[in-house]
Write a structure and sequence with these properties.
mainly alpha; Heme Oxygenase, Chain A; Ferritin; two-stranded parallel ribbon; 18 helices; 66% helix; 1% strand
């Protein structure tokens, strides 16, 4: 049968393929249906959608790249965000974007795109948008770009894609996008409230509005999230042209914190001890303060993700998940201090680890936190959990049990991440890490200058940095 001359060869009118139905068969089917007792709900979906597999994959690849770049972008700012609540949410939102990228990547792979091709994909226009987004003057401008411009545009694009793709043949894509939107709802709602809090606290609203308009125009200049919207001219001037973006290296805290970095010892940081050094009360408080101070681990793993961007997607994803875990640990510490009767901000915050890691090459910084910090925690946390259980300390027993399970996972994942970061053997990596931290600790005054010809031991490093 020849193609309809009005057809493009791939689309056909339904009447060209008539059904051949036998009356007796149809009547028998009608009779069988009449005897079937169950009246299940009808499926309201209908075949038909706007996207071919090729166009569907093109859009999903662009979504994937936006999500991957947003996760990397948040990681690069984790050191430079001062406000405690915003830093916590950054650790959470970083993972939401990385998880969205992973799910989109999986769906693209199902549509016969190789993981290698997906992971190697680059888009210079999106990169330029991300570079300008990152060139924010401060955290409020960053949130405007991340959430009110990029996040909102992605949310709208996902909803439109769900509405326009075939609801039956492309159900897996719809499910992926619906799962992503479960995170987007609370994330964008929080961002609106956070930006309002900044404005109520004195941030110039007109400055944020100018930044929002600038980034919206920039997104419009690249065809929006899907790349097919009508394009407008690129706005000018562009900050990233005047000064290429570089991530911060100094850990920032808001004015509610008192900080110290010249020691890893809480008693020295406090100026005097609160409890006898060998008492359970001292061990208990130190453990919880260490959790609250894992705000520095949000900074560590976030910057690692940025520093190794595009080397290995699975390593990026694992770093994003660990960053989210560390945000939870920080929340656990903060909430536990409240439950113990403290104002968390009355307790000075230890910055030794972040101060050393911030400027350091990622492999050595990762080795410190993984080989010394997290392994060090696993050495002691078991006996602490046993002691908490023996003393019927339900708060500490409950929290520490969950933290132990996280740290076990982090140590395991960290070994693979380190292999992505460096070709050095573990012994050489450990030695060089100890040497670099010795230099840093000397410069901070955490150890005396007469020790600068020596390298701190593993045990000293675990104590001084105190992960």
């Amino acid at each position: 049968m020849s193609a309809n001359p009005k057809s493009n060869g791939s689309e056909h009118r339904s009447e060209e393929f008539p059904a051949v139905s036998f009356p007796e068969h149809r009547a028998a089917a009608r009779e069988r249906r009449s005897q079937y007792p169950y009246k299940f709900p009808r499926d309201p979906r209908h075949l038909g959608g706007k996207f071919s597999v090729k166009e569907n994959a093109r859009r999903l690849l662009r979504f994937f790249y936006f999500e991957r770049r947003l996760a990397q972008a948040i990681g690069s700012w984790t050191l430079s965000i001062p406000e405690f609540e915003v830093k916590l949410e950054a650790g959470r939102h970083l993972f939401y974007h990385a998880d969205a990228a992973k799910n989109l990547r999986g769906r693209l792979n199902e549509q016969e795109q190789s993981l290698k091709a997906i992971d190697s994909h680059r888009d210079a226009e999106i990169d330029r948008f991300i570079e300008e987004l990152l060139s924010a003057e401060d955290a409020p401008e960053l949130l405007v770009g991340l959430h009110q411009v990029a996040g909102k545009a992605l949310e709208v694009a996902y909803r439109h894609h769900i509405d326009n793709t075939d609801p039956i043949t492309d159900t897996p894509t719809i499910r992926v996008l619906q799962r992503i939107l479960l995170d987007y709802g609370p994330m964008l709602e929080w961002a609106e409230a956070a930006i309002a809090a900044y404005v109520d606290g004195g941030i110039d609203e007109s400055r944020l509005a100018r930044r929002r308009w600038h980034l919206q125009r920039l997104l419009g200049s690249i065809g929006g999230v899907t790349g097919i919207d009508p394009r407008c001219p690129e706005p000018s001037p562009m900050r990233c042209d005047a000064k290429p973006y570089e991530r911060g290296t100094v850990p920032m805290r808001d004015c509610r914190f008192v900080t110290f970095c010249n020691t890893g010892n809480y008693d020295m940081g406090d100026g005097k001890p609160r409890f006898d050094s060998e008492s359970y009360d001292n061990h208990r408080l130190r453990f919880i303060r260490t959790q609250r101070d894992e705000v520095d681990a949000i900074e560590a793993f976030g910057t690692f993700l940025w520093d190794i961007r595009f080397k290995d997607f699975e390593a990026e994803y694992d770093l994003a998940r660990i960053t989210w875990d560390e945000a939870r640990h920080t929340e656990i510490g903060h909430q536990s201090l409240l439950a113990m009767g403290y104002d968390p901000f009355e307790l000075p915050n230890r910055l030794t680890g972040s101060t050393c890691r911030g400027p350091m090459e990622p492999a050595y910084a990762m080795a410190e936190i993984n080989l010394f910090g997290e392994v060090g925690v696993l050495k002691t946390i078991g006996s602490f959990i046993d002691e908490a259980k023996e003393k019927d300390d339900a708060l500490l027993y409950h929290n520490a049990d969950f933290i132990r399970s996280d740290e076990r996972t982090h140590v395991r994942k960290g070994q693979r991440i380190i292999r992505v970061m460096t070709d050095l053997g573990m012994q050489d990596l450990e030695l060089r890490t100890r040497e670099l931290f010795t230099e840093c600790l000397v410069s901070l005054g955490a150890i005396s200058k007469d020790m600068d010809l020596f390298t701190v031991s593993r045990e000293d490093l675990e104590e001084l940095v105190g992960e």
